[in-house]
Amino acid sequence: MGKVIIAGIGPGSKEDITPAVLEAVREADVVVGYKYYFQFVEPYLPKGCECVDTGMKKERERAEQAFELAEQGKTVVIISSGDAGIYGMAPLVYEMKHERQSEIQVEALPGISAFQKAASLLGAPIGHDMCIISLSDLMTPWEVIERRIKAAAEGDFVTAVYNPKSQGRYWQLYRLQELFLEYRSADTPVGYVRQAGREEQNVKITTLGDFNPEDIDMFTVVLIGNSQSYVTDGKMITPRGYYTGTQERAEKPGQQIMMESFRTIAGELKRDYPLDHKWALLHAIHTTADFEMEDILYTDVGAVETIYNKVRNGTLKTIVTDVTMAASGIRKGALQRLDIEVKCYLNDARVAEFSSANNITRTQAGIRLAVEEHPDALFAFGNAPTALMELCDLIRKGKAKPAGIIAAPVGFVHVRESKHMVKPFRDIPKIIVEGRKGGSNLAATLCNAIMTFDDAKQLKPGRDL
Fold this sequence. Notes:
Layout: E1 3-8, H1 19-26, E2 30-33, H2 38-41, E3 50-53, H3 59-70, E4 75-80, H4 90-100, E5 105-109, H5 114-122, E6 123-124, E7 130-134, H6 142-154, E8 158-162, H7 172-181, E9 189-194, E10 202-207, E11 220-224, E12 230-232, E13 235-237, H8 242-245, H9 253-268, H10 275-288, H11 293-296, E14 297-299, H12 303-312, E15 318-321, H13 324-328, H14 332-338, E16 341-343, H15 349-358, H16 362-373, E17 378-381, H17 385-396, E18 404-407, H18 415-422, E19 430-433, H19 440-451
Helix pairs in contact: 3-4, 6-7, 9-10, 10-19, 15-16, 16-17, 17-18
């Protein structure tokens, strides 16, 4: 009695064929497969070994012939590209063995799959939970495929895409991109490899937003990163946590919870946003559990990144808040790390006298004093609309030139008006919580978002907890 060995020969390079598969080929009486793949095993075939070509799309006939040859007492090796168990011949052969009630021994030998080869060429994109989806709807209804795409995108899986395009299947990859953009940032890294391991090999890294399905053909494997994937030194990385787990910036339990919360929020956003606006939005929703922030959080284009760059280059050294509660919510670790001072003048001994003499609120008086000493600070308002209105007046008089403004006063009197008043200052980067909503907690968390903007691409909040 012969036997059937199902062997994955890898993606196409002789160097990627495993020793176990080579040993099986050397002992084969017959090799069955698609003729294109014979070239990769011919140097290892024993003398007299027969190669049986069954042609493309003849998988069932291939398996039947293998069993018939094995029943003649021959050792038959069915070769399959990549790993025979991944969109390959292995399931079919085992199903046929059961169907035929065959006594033939069947053995499957793993091979390096195309997505593994592609991943190694791209860097380390599959370092965390991942899945594989085939866009071929020859045997799977598109409705099922689309459900799986949505689950992969919402579940934040690194996703390998097989059979992305063919001559008659041209639109499915566009739909996949559209679905992923509902759940993932446009900045999500995407890598793809054409003819992995072969002479025609081509490797490219782009982003989900810039990805062009027209660059893809049936010989290409696409890998879409998760929310933590990033690109560095031309390589695509999805961290598992081993490195950060041994570093000074190891993720503490509080940060781990915050990261999971951010991933949950990101998956429930109604649409995609530019990275710096999204970073502020995630902080705002995390602090309030209020998804209305999607509609009422306004940021100037690039505001968060612009203010962060002032922190990074050392030109922003002071944050001024309207009330002490806002100041207390700004993370002390971040302030110390970035050498930034937070000032709130509400309890300054001069404020009571100044407000009484000028018939203004104490928060207004505090802002006047702040502008005298720190006219170029980042001003953050979470309580008092009168303080924000005072700053606007001082800007118009040329007495203040803030590095940025966070306008999130809360209440019912002059609140909306104060936020409208700040918008005309187009040369000052602004973050505004529109309408009546706001609060010191929001003002503080938006300051924290600015100070940790360098963690935004990896979606790793809570560094300074």
